[in-house]
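Worked example
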Amino acid sequence: MTAELVRGQNHPLPHSRLEIRVTAGVPVLACATLGDDRGTVLGVEWIAHPGSPTLPGIEVSRQAAAGLRFHVDLEALPDRAHLVHVLLALPEGVGGPSRFGTTAAPFAAVTATDGTEIASFTLTGLEAESAVVALELYRRQGAWKVRAVGQGYAGGLAELFGDQGVPQAREFAAGIQEAVARHMASAIQAPLTGTPDGVRVRSDRSATATQPGQTAGGAAGAGASPGSGVTPGAGTAPGTGATPHQLPGTPGQQPASPSDGQGQQPAAAAHAAAGGRVNYTHPRRQTTAPPTPPPASPPTQPGQAPRPVAGDATGWSMEERLYNQVWGMFEDLARATAAYRSAVDFAESRMDQELDRVLSDPRSRIGGTGDAARQVARAKRDQLTDQAREALDRDLGQLAAESDVVEPALPPAYARWDNPVWHAYRVPMDNPMALRLGDLHLPERTDLRIPMLVRLPLERGLWIDSGRSGSEGALMLDEGQLRKLAMDNAVGHAARLLAAYPPGEFTVHVIDAAGSAAMSLAPLVAAGVLNQPPASGAAGVSAVLAKLTQRVDLVQMAVRGGAADSLPPELDTAEQLLIVNDFPHGFDDRAVTQLRYLADEGPAVGVHLMMVADREDASAYGPVLDPLWRSLLRITPVADDHLADPWVGHAWTFEPLTMPPGSEILRRVLEQVAEARRAWRR
C-alpha cells in the first residue's frame, strides 16, 4: 500500500533500486545532492544536475520538463553518502513562472523499478519559492528511509546550495540555469496542441518531400530518446534499448507512419495547423516508459544461456532498441573488465600482505618455512587470478556472440562502412537518433569492438586531431599522411550525416583556407552535396563565419522572443555542419572569436563544428583557445587510447571508421543523397 506522506513524515524503503517520479504543472529542473553522516555536501562533485546528470548510484534528468525521473541505486552510493536530497527548481531566463506559488503543486512519487509505488508527497504550501528540497533519502542504522521535506527557497538554487554549504553556490547555480536555458532554447517553438511530442516539422518542401518508392507525407522522426537519458563514459554511459520495427533505409521498407486518427500524418497535421516550425531537440522524444522487448531466443540445450538477439533492449523503435543494446554492451564490457582488474589487484595485494607477515618473522626468512609460505601465497594469487580470468572470458565470450548478431542488424547511421546495409542504402525520411564515430575496445580483448555512438543532434562539436599525439599509430606516419587521414575521416563523418538525414535537413559547409584538402574533399564536391564550394583564403573564411554567426544570432533572438514564425524565409533552417581544415591557417583574431562563438552557442540552434587541426599549430594564440578545445570531443584518425572513462577508470582505445580499399560505397551513397536533394528542391 502506498504511503501518502505529509511534510516531515518518513517511511521505510524496502528496495535499494528506486525511481522518483515528479510531475509539475510547468517545466522544472532536477538536481540531487549527496551528504555525509552530518548532512554536509562535500563539494560540487557530490551534486547531480542537468549539466552533470550522473553520480555513483544516482541519475537526474538532463532537461527541464513537467515530468521528471530520478534513478537511484542505494547500494551503489559512495560509502560516505548517508543522505540524498531531491531538489526541484524553476528554470530562469526562459519566460516561465518565477515562483512555485503560481503553478500547480508538484507531486513526487517514490517507486520500485517495476513501477510499484512506495510513497508519495504533494508539495503544497509553496508561494514565493523558486527552488525546493522535495524529498530526503537517509540512512539510519543501516536501513534507508524517505522523508517528505518540502522546504522552499525564495532565492532559488543559489540560496538552496548556500544553505547546504556548497562553495561558490551562486556561480554554480547560475551555471546550471544557463545549461538548462540553452537546452530549452534548442526548441524554436513549444510543442503544438494535438501533435505528438517532438515531431519535427519544417516547411512545405520537407513535409512533402518524397523519395523513389515513397509517397508524400511520411512521418517525421521515428527515433526516440532512451527512457532514462543515460550517457556513456566516453562522452556518455550506456543506456538500455518496441515491437520489432522495419529498419530505415532497407529496400522496399518504410518506417511506420502513425496517423492522427483522421488519415493525416502527424507531420502534415502539425504543419497545417501552424505553418511549419523548427525543433532541434531529439526527434519524437517520449516521456513515458518504452515497451518491453520480446523475450530472447530459448536456449538450445538445458542450462545454456539464451542466444543473443539483435534489438533485445527496451525502446520505441528498432533504431532505439539497437542504440540501447549497443550501450548496454558497452556497460557490460566496462563492468566485466573493471571486476577482473579489481580481482587481480586484490589477489596481488593479498599475496603482498601474506608475504609481509611471513617476512616480519626473522625465523621464517630463511630455510624451508619461508619458501613454503611464499609458494602458498603465490599459489593463492594465481588461483584467484585464474578464477577472475575465467569469469572475464565467459563474459567477453557472451558479448562477442552478441556483437556478432547486433553488428549486421545495425542501420546505416550505426554501421561500419563494410556493413552490407550500405549496399541497400536508401535516403531516409526520418531524422536519425545517433551516429557512429568509430569503435571502442579494451586491451583485455582487442577484437571485441563496441560501436561508439553519439546522440543527434550533436551536443558537442568534434575535433579530429591531425597532430602526432604520441600514439603508436600517429608516430608511424609523417605529418602529411596524418593530416590527410584526419581530413578523410572528417569527410566520412560528413557523408554519414548527410546520408542519415532526410533531404534538405542537413547542410555542410567547408573551410579549407589553404586548399590543402582538395583530394579528401573530392567525393563531396564531385557528388554536389555541398551548397557552396569549399571556402579558401581569408575572405572565404570571413564569409562563411559571418553567415553562420548571423544564423545563430537570428535563431537565438527568435527563440528568446518567441517569434520563430518571423525568421526570414530565405534562412536555411536545416542543421548545419562546419568543417574547418588546418586551423588556424587563414584565421585572424576576429575569425577566431567567431569560431569560438559558434562552438559555444551553435549546437543549441542547430549549428555544429568539426575541426580538423593540430593543437600545436594554434599554440601562437596561447591559452585563449583552451576553452575551444575543451568544448569539443577529440577523436583521432588512427587508433589511440585517449578516451578516459571516469566511472571505472578505463582508458578506452578509439578505432576510427575506415573505408574498405577500393570501395565505391561512399561515391554511390553520396550520389543518392545528391539526387534526393535535387528532387527535394524541385
Notes: The two ends are 62 Å apart (CA to CA). The first strand starts at residue 3 and ends at 5.
